[in-house]
Design brief:
heterodimer; A: mainly alpha; two-stranded antiparallel sheet; 2 strands; B: mainly alpha; 3 helices
Amino acid sequence: MYKPNDLILRTTTSLIAFILLGFAVYLLFAGHNSPGGGFIGGLVTAAAIVLMYMAYGIETVDKVLPINFETLISIGLITAIVTGLGSFLFDVPFLSHTFDYFEFPIFGEVELATAMLFDIGVYFTVVGVTVTIILNIANDQ
Amino acid sequence: MTDNLLDVTETILDITLFISFIAISLSLILLLIRMLKGPTNPDRAVALDTIGINLMGVAALLAIYLITPNLNDVILLIAILAFLGTVAIAKYLEKGVIIDRDMD
């Protein structure tokens, strides 16, 4: 087996992966008022991670990103459930969500909704499921 | 006078959109022929990648036609997915595996 030279692919990957992660964060936070949300943000993050896996191989990326993606599924599901259970603290039905306006030093007045926390749970679950599926298929002999 | 000018620009925009849609459809048909006939697999991969780029054009024209800014994310997403798919196809054609266990 000859050794291929992946210089262009690796350089492009290290640039594009960051753009992809930034786009994923934008999609996650834009989901309230425009197209986007936890699902598509998680898919774009998974795309960035899979791109790194394709360019650098499994061992290197496992060293750079020491994340167990199966644990990430549980973390996401627990986050989503806890945001639902949190509504019991205020004596309202399960999964009731609320929002409020807060002042921040740079951003000014920002509307923060608890639906965002639920979206972050969806985000982690989607990232975990997608990367787990692709890695398990790739590890198949 | 101003209304007249607006009408004229709107007509020009409509005509331009019409021509662009027809041109992109022709381009997509030619690419489809290349994808179906392509003698080798790299030919089909390049045709698919270019179809992705043409789809970005279709989405952009549709955003102008429907007068909505909500399709801009879709354009970026199509670009990302086309790039990822092309890299995956290229790696498969080159090495036989898409995600390799160790790079040596």
